[in-house]
């Protein structure tokens, strides 16, 4: 009996303890302290979305407690919600939270809202706790950079790293600053160090992916984003970068799937709609692209890609005046943006503003590698302005010669006059403009000397090496130019570096290296029109006419049928396969686009002869080709054979 009573008493005690625990648990749930604890734990693990939900529940249960509001301010700042973070920080202060405890959250919120000066005031306050000092320094650096004080930002981050050398987030911030300053090599070093310090940090992996995209190519960057997303499937910034990279790599269906994931995480995400709009525009679905762009609203209006897409869609819709509204500010901010400048010139022309069209296109017309389309459009503008001589000169340039496969790419600013040389030989922006002006005015020797000084002062800046390569190539030293281009390509393997390097090695007679560079660029940028052009050229060189036609057809789908060089390439391929009828169609299209081009007249003549067309017309075309270029023996041979 005694033993039974003891067991009964023990059971009652255990039940009482359980009931007390249940009461306490329910009490914690009711007063919000449990939700607050879970929210803080989620913050510690870096799961900000889970933290936001838990803290929302805590705030509902204890709306007058300042701590949940202060924590939520930090979470919302991490998630990029500047307005929400600021509101929560202000609420926490109003409820009695010391301002020092919300300085970092408030500074981040203000910076997200574009108020760099106010963010500096918060982040540089004297009452910031020591534990928040490094985070505050990162905000100070970003605010200074936003105000154009890059040197001050760099000094701030370097000082923060002296305090916390193993802080991966500060390393990432340092890398982004180096990238903005044009020092790609230093940015790569900072990113690699950050990955070594925090190999499972989503923000660090995403930044390394962004750098890999420019350093090696689109395809090479994808594994970095995929690795980050295995750690956090709902990381919105990573999903944005991943989707954009997939889209640019030509993987439209995968990109759409990722944007849908992004919209599930952040309903109404502007970049998701923007990426879908770009994919629709590339797929020749302008109505769908407009509808998707409408969903973006005005949230990305300040970005170049948005303004360019708006301009393209307005032109597609026959609204050149609205296209001008979108494109004119973009060209003013980015004078070297060739597609935007060309499109703006066309919009002015279609709107009847021929003087503005001529002025807009003038820097591009002044280039040595001006494209035939630009020259023709500028000529039409001059004709409308009653300047027949200038128009005739531009048309003559447009007709001869055909555009090179991989000509050195310059900038529309190259047409500017070289003023006095910059005092600081290490200043990249000023010296690059000066070097390019020298090249256009025949000062290649001086340009090489200036470019060497610039590259020596900025060994991690790809643009400095590109300027040196351009200068050497102008002096017909292609092998040396290729070495300079290689230095640039090792840091940033983009269109400019790849095409220059391919061209330089080809000019130096090293076709093996030229093809290797071209193949690498094609593999990393399979949807790029420039990559497709290179792929077609390689296929023609191998006499692989089937591959050449498939590539050219893909390129025509991307760029349309108004490119005489493309039509000529298709005609050449058809001729090589013995398909004279198809060759005639493409050759005629090319000739009609550029009737003053001798090579195209000869090509159409050959297509006519092979397909059983008019021999009289073929002879007339060959006589025209020979009249345009009497020193080309091939045209004379073709004419004699036709006769």
From TrEMBL:
Database matches in Gene3D superfamilies: Tetratricopeptide repeat domain
Keywords associated with the record: Repeat, TPR repeat
Start and stop residues of the TPR repeats: 168-201
Coiled coil: none
Protein's UniProt name: Tetratricopeptide repeat protein
